[in-house]
Design a protein that fits this description.
This protein has 348 residues and is an alpha+beta fold. The protein contains 10 helices and 16 strands. It folds into 2 domains: 267 residues, 4-Layer Sandwich (Deoxyribonuclease I, Chain A), CATH 3.60.10; 54 residues, Orthogonal Bundle (DNA polymerase, domain 1). Helix 1 packs across helix 2.
């Protein structure tokens, strides 16, 4: 089954009012590997937030591609930043932040934690951001706790988060703190006691965030947003179950988007609500870009394809394979990979 694309459908949209922002956290399952990721669908989900912390970024070029995709969908400018690659073995990943420029600005202090006890496999990453409506500055941190072979492998990092939370207070300069991520542990586990004793509380205490292989079913509340019990006016919180939003099966969602659903909070009155769009969902065959039949303007929707390259694609028809687009001047192997990963192509 192919993923289906939208002109519309039910979309979750952030509330637009003064000082209202929606902050999310999402493990986007090996973002940047050659895994047929549907960037168009990932961007549709991202567009529901004003500031998003990302875990499992494997290649920073994928973050740039995602930023471009969400700019096209939203019609707004976005910005992003990423940590260096982190990990104690051959497996490494980056953390990242992605934000809507009309609502949020990077303030300062982007830093990877200097792990006092060398406990973390991937040390947490934090930065300070400013709400452009009311100038409130918040410190946002993200982490991906190691999964290991059993729960016992995760507990040292969970306990070390108390040390990190204390350190974060020192560098946060009196601003409210948020710790977002994939913690690989339920929020009611007894090992959270040290972090709880410091006044941190989980925003999400009910539900599940990992997609099962059965449509409509979820397991484990591993993803969360920890925050101070005071300091932020939290107006909404929840789990964005994106397979229902995009109307695709769980197996397909796990393969081409992520096996985790994002979690979010709204602050200062922001709420995530269902808004019905006027147009209806159509099959991917009706909306995708075909390099042998689409118009130049439709071809220009592809990554790295402007009017000049679109004309070159038209002149080169018929194409036996989309892989042959490297024959077009300016479409390198790397850029072709972006085109193929965009999820916009159909046909060959």
């Amino acid at each position: 089954m192919k993923l289906r694309f939208f002109l519309g459908s039910l979309l979750l949209l952030p509330a637009l009012a003064q000082a209202e922002i929606l902050i999310g956290s999402w493990n986007i399952k090996h973002l940047g590997w050659n895994n047929d990721k549907s960037f168009a669908h990932v961007a549709q989900v991202v567009n529901n937030f004003d500031l998003l912390a990302i875990q499992e970024l494997m290649d920073t070029s994928a973050l740039a591609q995602l930023e471009r995709e969400v700019e096209v969908i939203s019609g707004e400018e976005w910005s992003s930043m990423a940590s260096h690659d982190l990990g104690h073995s051959s497996y490494t990943e980056h953390y990242a932040f992605l934000w809507r420029n009309s609502e949020v600005a990077y303030e300062d202090s982007a830093v990877v934690f200097l792990d006092h006890g060398d406990v973390f496999s991937r040390e947490p990453y934090s930065a300070r951001f400013r709400d452009l409506d009311d100038d409130q500055v918040i410190t946002v941190a993200t982490v991906h706790v190691v999964y290991g072979d059993s729960i016992s492998d995760r507990l040292p990092e969970i306990e070390a988060l108390a040390d990190y939370w204390t350190w974060l207070k020192e560098v946060a300069a009196g601003t409210p703190r948020l710790l977002l991520g994939d913690f690989n542990l339920q929020p009611d586990h007894e090992k959270w006691a040290s972090l709880l004793s410091l006044g941190a509380v989980p925003a999400i205490v009910n539900g599940q965030t990992t997609l099962s292989t059965t449509a409509g079913e979820y397991a484990n509340l591993y993803d969360n947003i920890w925050h101070e019990g005071k300091g932020l006016n939290i107006s909404d919180r929840g789990i964005l179950k994106f397979p229902e939003l995009l109307q695709i099966e769980h197996l397909e969602a796990r393969d081409r988007i992520s096996d985790h659903a994002p979690v979010y909070i709204g602050i200062n009155g922001a709420r995530l609500g269902l808004v019905a769009a006027a147009s209806v969902m159509t099959d991917s065959a009706g909306d995708c870009v075909d390099i042998n039949s689409s118009t130049p303007s439709q071809l220009s929707e592809l990554p790295h394809v402007g009017p000049s390259r679109a004309d070159s694609i038209v002149k080169g028809r018929p194409w036996a394979s989309s892989n042959d687009l490297t024959q077009v001047r300016g479409i390198s192997v790397g850029r072709l990979k972006d085109v193929l990963n965009s999820g916009l192509l159909c046909g060959i």
